[in-house]
Design a protein that fits this description.
Keywords: Sigma factor, Transcription, Transcription regulation. By secondary structure, the chain is mostly helical. The chain has two domains: 7-94, Rna Polymerase Sigma Factor, Chain: A (Orthogonal Bundle), CATH 1.10.1740.10; 106-189, Winged helix-like DNA-binding domain superfamily/Winged helix DNA-binding domain (Arc Repressor Mutant, subunit A, Orthogonal Bundle), CATH 1.10.10. The chain is 79% helix and 0% strand. The longest helix is centred in the middle third of the chain and has 35 residues, at 60-94. It is rod-shaped, with a radius of gyration of 36 Å. The protein starts with 6 loop residues before the first helix and ends with a helix. The relative contact order is 0.06.
Length: 190
Amino acid sequence: MEGALSEAEDSGLRKLAAEMRPQLVRFIVSRGCEPDEAEDVYQDLFVKLAGWRGGPVANARAYLFQMTNNLVRDLRRGARRQQGRDDGWARSQYGQDLMSDPQPTPEHTALDRDFLAKVERALAAMPPRTVEILRLYRVDGVGQKAIASRLDISLSAVEKHLQRAYRELQLVRATLEGETRAAHMEDSHV
């Protein structure tokens, strides 16, 4: 039977693989596999040898090392394909930028708290009626005409109160943006 191993040759390769087990497992681990993975690859080698049908092997030890190396490469290729599938799924579920953490950094949280404190101070410095109109319009979603009717003032007065509130809040924003720009420039010069 040319091209097929005799039963004696086949059992000889498996017997040699069993004798070389410690060397083959070390070889697999040296290729970057974890010890548990190395045992799995070694078992895959035995499965492959059980179904192997090939010609005579001139250097059986080298052949077993090459078979083992090919199994490790197959394992790595499979892991890369799996990683690609997992990455594709994650991007489809959570968006393309998987590197950014949706949680704010402590620095971002501190900046947001500072911004909120400045807005609250600006609101506290405004006349109470202006704050009330701003809250009704921007927070509660009440229309300007409805606010004018509810507070028994003209629509023009409502618009003026909102303009005043927006001007004050824009000043706070401009101040914060200036501080942020200055901090970034300072960081880039360090």
